Automatic annotation (TrEMBL):
Belongs to the diaminopimelate epimerase family. Keywords: Amino-acid biosynthesis, Isomerase, Lysine biosynthesis. It is found in: Plastid, Chloroplast. The keyword Amino-acid biosynthesis applies. GO terms for biological process: lysine biosynthetic process via diaminopimelate. Its main location: plastid. GO terms for cellular component: chloroplast; cytosol. Pathway: Amino-acid biosynthesis; L-lysine biosynthesis via DAP pathway; DL-2,6-diaminopimelate from LL-2,6-diaminopimelate: step 1/1. It comes from the Eukaryota. One of its GO terms (molecular function) is diaminopimelate epimerase activity. Transmembrane segments: none annotated. This is diaminopimelate epimerase. It comes from Lupinus angustifolius. The keyword Lipid biosynthesis does not apply.
Length: 362
């Protein structure tokens, strides 16, 4: 599915929305291309025109293609694509013509707002490569903060670059991130496998103020969070993660029962995490199957976190709870994670899907 959207953003604090939204959807299957059904909806102080596909339509389909849309350079509009990786959704911006993001963190907050903007967990920019890499990836979270990188985001980044460069078949490229070199590979089936590099276990580098208890690492260490004692392992995948499988009085978590919105912020802003932290709550289903819910630093509860899934498998291996190759079930779907013993790198494989193309006035 593809669509183009024109959105006039207003500040999230305003109680009225002045917008003009035009969507053009183009659907295709291996059997046919459906025709287009036009619908007009009237709302107070706004006008929304939607063109969507329907097998009941008698109108001709629109001819907008991804390549023609992505090649547009008219200003002062920002053209973008929206992707999701297992429901972790992002606005992708072609930023290859300049080394600075085209919008500010404050504008990214407006863009990510799900009521007054496009709606996303973050805005990702495709910038020119540095230090010999093909591209540079930067991301602004929905709260305006800038993380080192994002696992689901880098898969979406790879699919977006493939469209920008008109790449087909199996291919890979190098990406400079705040977490170092990342190498995504788009596979024949459309999934993306990413070499996430080596996990960082040294406590001071994660960073955490918790005292190391295993080879300079924090593994199954006790952490008091608002009076509850949790067992936590700390891992960095270029960004900090706190992973917990158990706590005092409960050896195994049932993650569906967690009140994530209550407990997540207490972990994120705990004093032992000087750079805040992402937090993964994990249920062990078998030695090769884990179930996880995540509270992301700067984004809150999300449907998936790629770096979190990687950190989870590393933590599970360190605690003796799983093998090195696991399926990690997230609310948005599964990721395949492997922590290879031969090179100490973590590999993540999963989907990244286009939602629509859009443009908005700057």
């Amino acid at each position: 599915m593809t669509a183009t959207i024109s959105v006039q953003l207003s500040a999230p604090t305003r109680r009225s929305l002045n917008s003009s939204v035009n969507l053009r959807h183009q659907f295709s299957t291996s059997h046919s291309t459906f025709a287009t059904l036009q619908r007009n909806f009237q709302f107070p102080r706004s006008r929304i025109t939607v063109s969507s596909s329907s097998s009941m339509s008698i109108d001709a389909p629109l001819k907008t293609s991804s390549s023609s849309f992505l090649d547009r350079r008219d200003t002062p509009f920002l053209h973008f694509a929206k992707f999701h990786g297992l429901g972790n959704d992002f606005v992708l911006v072609d930023n290859r013509d300049t080394i600075e993001p085209k919008i500010s963190p404050e504008k990214a907050v407006q863009l990510c707002d799900r009521n007054f903007g496009v709606g996303a967990d973050g805005v990702i920019f495709v910038l020119p490569g540095i230090n010999g890499t093909d591209y540079t990836m930067r991301i602004f979270n929905s709260d305006g903060s800038e993380p080192e990188m994002c696992g689901n985001g880098v898969r979406c980044f790879a699919k977006f670059v493939s469209q920008l460069e008109n790449l087909h078949g199996r291919h890979s490229f190098t990406v400079h991130t705040g977490a170092g070199l990342i190498v995504p590979e788009v596979l024949e089936d459309g999934n993306v496998r990413v070499d996430m590099g080596e996990p960082v276990l040294k406590a001071s580098d994660v960073p955490t103020k918790l005292s190391p208890n295993k080879d300079h690492a924090v593994v199954k260490s006790e952490l008091d969070v608002d009076g509850v004692i949790w067992n936590v392992t700390c891992v960095s995948m270029g960004n900090p993660h706190c992973i917990t499988f158990s706590g005092k009085g409960f050896e195994n978590l049932f993650v569906d029962e967690l009140k994530l919105a209550e407990i997540g912020p207490k972990f994120e802003h705990h004093e032992v995490f000087p750079a805040r932290t992402n937090t993964e709550f994990v249920q062990v289903l078998s030695e090769s199957h884990l179930k996880m819910r995540v509270w992301e630093r700067g984004a809150g509860a999300t449907l998936a976190c790629g770096t979190g899934a990687c950190a989870t498998v590393v933590a599970a291996v360190l605690e003796g709870r799983s093998g090195r190759n696991c399926t990690v079930d997230l609310p948005g779907g599964p990721l395949q994670i492997e922590w290879r013993e031969e090179d100490n790198h973590v590999y993540m494989t999963g989907s990244a899907e286009l939602v629509y193309y859009g443009s908005l006035p700057l």
